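Work Package 3 (structural annotation) set out to generate three-dimensional models for the target panel prioritized at the project kickoff. During this period the team completed the workflow that converts sequence records into C-alpha cells, so that structures can be stored uniformly alongside our sequence database. As a representative example, we reproduce one entry of 332 residues exactly as it appears in the project archive.
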Amino acid sequence: MKFIIKLLRFFKINKKKKIEIDNSKKVIIISHDDVDGVISASIIKRKFGDAYYLPSSPRNLPYHLSELNLENKIVVLSDLSPNEEQIDTIYNSIEKITNSMCEVIWIDHHSWPPGSIEKIKEKAKVFVEPSVSAAELVAKVLELNDETSMKLVSIANDADSANYSTEEAININRAIRNKKRLQYVFEALSEGRINDEKILKWAKKEERNDEKIKEYVKTLPVFLTKSNYRYTVIDVRKSKLPGSLTGKYASLEHNLDFTVVIYSNKSVSLYAGMNKNINLLLIARKFNGGGHPFACGCSPKLSLKSRILDKLLGKRYTAKEIKEILKAVNEL
C-alpha cells in the first residue's frame, strides 16, 4: 500500500512553493544560502539600505528568477553562477525583469560557462572575476571599505576557502544550518552584529553535533583514485550531518585529499581536504556543475526511472547518475 501511495504522489503534479517577496523593499537580493552568500547579501544591504534577501542556490536560481514579479526595483545577484543548460532560461527571466523597469546587477567570483557572461551582459550589469569570496568582490564593486564591511569580508574569505579558522565563520556556519535562520542572520550581519546573541545561541546549540561528526568520520572508508588521491564519500542523506563540515573533519581524520558529499540524488558536492591544489571543478563541469577548483558541485539530470526510484526509495536509493559521478571521481 505504501508503494502505491508513493507512486501516486510521484505522478501527481507538485508545484514548487511560491516564493514570497517583500515588495515594500526597493532592492531585492538573490544570493547563495551559505556563509559567503549571506555575508555578500548583508554587505549589499549596507550599500543600498532597505533590502529583501532571497536565499538561493545554483539549482534553484532559474526558478527563483522566473517567479519574480517586480516593477521599478533593483535586483542584485551574488555568489551564484549559472550552469550551462540554465543560461537561456535565466536570460529570458532577466529580460522579463528588466522590461518591468528593473535594474539587474550580478556580482560573482565563480567560473562561468564560455560565452555566458557576454550573453547575460546584454540585459544586466555583470561583474565576474576571481576572488577569495563573493563578499570580497561585492565590497570591491560597491566600493565599501568601512571597518564592518571589511570584517565581514574577512569572515567570508575564511569560510569560502574552507578554512574555518575563525570563531565568527564557525558560528555563522553553525547558525545557518537551519535555513529558517538566514533572514535573521542577514539582518544582524548587515547591521554589524557579528556576535549577535541569537547567532551565538544557535551556534552553541549546533556545536553539540560536532562531536557526533567527529565520531562518524572515523567510520568512513578511504578510497584511492587512479592518481592515488585519497578521498571518501559522505552520504548526508543517511547521516543528516552538515556536508562541508563533515568533509573537513573527515579530511583531518584520514588525511584526505578531498571528499565527495551526496546531498541527494540531485546534488553532489566535492570539497578539497588537505590538498588545496587539486582541481575538483574538472569533475563538476563534466556533469553540468560549477563552483571553485577546491569546492564545487553538480546536479545530475535524472532519467525518468531514476526519478521514480528516488521518489519511492528515498535515501536508500543511489541513482545511476550519481554512480557515474563517483566513477568519474575515481578516474582523477
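The two ends are 44 Å apart (CA to CA).
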